[in-house]
Amino acid sequence: MRLRTVDAFTDRPYSGNPAAVVLLDRGPFPDDTALRAVAAEMNLSETAFAHPLADDPGADWALRWFTPTDEVDLCGHATLATAHVLASDGRVPESGTVRFRTRSGVLTATPGPGGTLTLDFPTARLTAVDVPAALPAALGAEVTAAHVTASVHFLLAELADEKAVRELAPDLAAVSALERPAVIVTARAESAGHDFVSRVFAPGHGIPEDPVTGSAHTALAPLWSPRLGSDTLTGLQLSARTGSVRTELRGERTLLTGRAVTVLDAELLTGL
């Protein structure tokens, strides 16, 4: 069975966020144990599994995402990677938009100019909360404000500036003990060409630091767009690999635009 590794939210190999993509024959999905085993073997932040849908008028493909330890409800970079693989294989519908049936409803991916792909995702609702007592010590930095998200279950922490985000060295054991399974840290960008910066830590899901997190930007867009006075922004994720996500806030939906590049095309010898 063919397996590809795609670096998402970048146009350069070995940057952005790598995802493994497995396109299956028509459903149903294989047993979850087999899917989890493949994802653990890949040991990337996410492995995407998709199969075509024959009798679903609302979607073209069923799509699921697994970290090395868990199935997740929403994943941006692995969706972008899957759409990139489908486009590379010439399997995009005549409409130009691929529709994915997922645990977060129907998500779409549309090819654009310059090799870009735009995802249409649900906007994450933010609720401001008091800074959790354990959060500053876990992150090793002062937290100026905190929010929780209703859909993607992040804790979002605002830091003083880009330098604080860039130099952060959190205690991952302490982060994994927090109530929320993943933490986004963010600040306004000082780097030219970007509006805000972020990093994402999810050690409880087997991901110490996620290189570029599309789903986190569904929470970052509604945080920063009102403050910066623009529905369209560009975020820079400051992991070691780095990557950029353009966001466009459209009320209950957020568009995420980026590029992707295939770096590995392999055969999964054991099959599924």
From TrEMBL:
Transmembrane segments: none annotated. GO terms for molecular function: isomerase activity. Pfam families: PhzC-PhzF. It comes from the Bacteria. The active site is at residue 46. One of its GO terms (cellular component) is cytoplasm. Keywords: Isomerase. PANTHER family: PHENAZINE BIOSYNTHESIS PROTEIN, PHENAZINE BIOSYNTHESIS-LIKE DOMAIN-CONTAINING PROTEIN. Belongs to the PhzF family. This is PhzF family phenazine biosynthesis protein. It comes from Streptomyces boncukensis.
